[in-house]
Design brief:
283 residues; single chain; 3 helices; Neuraminidase; five-stranded mixed beta sheet
Length: 283
Amino acid sequence: MKYSWLLVLCLIACSDDKISNLFSSAEDKGIVDIKLEEASGLVASATHPGYFWTHNDSGNGAELFLIDSNAQIVATMSLANVRNRDWEDITLGSGPEPDKTYLYVGDIGDNNAQYPFKIVYRLEEPATIENKVIEKFDTLYLQLPDGTRDSEALMIDPISSRMFIVSKREDSVRLYQFANTWKSGDTLTAELKIKMPFFNTVAADVSVDGSEVLLKNYDHVYYWKRKGSDPIPDLLLQTPIELKYKPEKQGESIAWSRDGSGYYTLSESSTQERARLLFYKRK
């Protein structure tokens, strides 16, 4: 297994020039509002085409920001009586009512590997663009089968409705899968599915039709093309394609556009440099 992963890494490195042409170089869409100084998590809205949901990470408010395609905040929504322990990613998926789309907010960060559980908040995607406090949402507690560890990448497969978390700090990060049926207040224990030869994984996203997967660390973006309905763990064991990525100060967010025309990245800001929303258009 060790040597097969070394082969995977070699194939990625050797084929970089060819595969990076699938998408254009980064297009600067705009400077991110100062309120999003520690942006960590990004997903394209299903209810509001052309807009994106994002949030800050630990030490900030329990707030969701709706931004437009130029990175400007158009609405701020707070989750009532919730603390942002370490929100690290956000995604969209199905839920209790089949005709509705739900936001999943991942309070899954754990820099010191000290928390006995992770938390995911599920709420109906807001139908209106306005500042408000959200009172109604579900809370799910997650445990890992192999102890506490840091993670920043959350994704939901629209084909199977399965939720996945990718760990961050191991030399070979771990993919965890969770049951897709639960109710508010439940505690689920993950199933460790695979280990992958990546380090510092900080974001992930699955395309709307479930056919494409992105995984990001601080320096690279990796891409998988699905054939049929192959399970996500089986797909991620295959050799990925490395896509173009413009280095960011601390880029911890990636998202497909709803129409599949490309992918976006978003970084935390610094005192010297404000973050920008970047778009990579499919050729």
